[in-house]
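tmp note - MARVEL domain-containing protein
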Amino acid sequence: MFIKKFIPKILLNYDKEYMFIRLGFVRLFIILMLLGGWIAATAAPTNNDIDTKAPKVAYLIFGIIGFLVSIFIFIFNFYNIIKMDIFVDIPWEIIFLGLDFVFMCALFGTSIGCSAAEANSRDKVIRKTVNGTSTQIITYDEVNKGTFATAAVFGFLASISYFILVCISVNRFLKIRKKNKQQNSPST
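out:
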């Protein structure tokens, strides 16, 4: 009881149903997948090669922005901030649906890029002439083997989770719209 005096009321009034009924766990899964993919992409070697650097940078950008946006959405839903009086008029469901759709597409594309970069980084061979003979030097670092593939797997899992959220949000939106149409239509 003593601790409750120091904790803001908004943190004590969280939505228990969001975690179980309204897909809070899916949002947490997305957050974890984005974090894991971002860490894997950070560890991926590029060796200043455009075939590997572009997918890595794209994944890092979309991964961290998606991570932050997902945390923002989770906090807004979990603590019922979207239901506060000053935010009631904002169409949060449509905004969150749009953001989820954008990041679903972006992560799907960057995951494909990361999987292609994994294949490219494994096949990179530099030919050098040493003492008149042509030798092959493999530039792929064995310690970081598979990091692009790991980032791609995390990205695909996050994309699938985003797809689930988008489908459920669209379904919920259509049900509400149908219900409103039925209520507004004159009964015969």
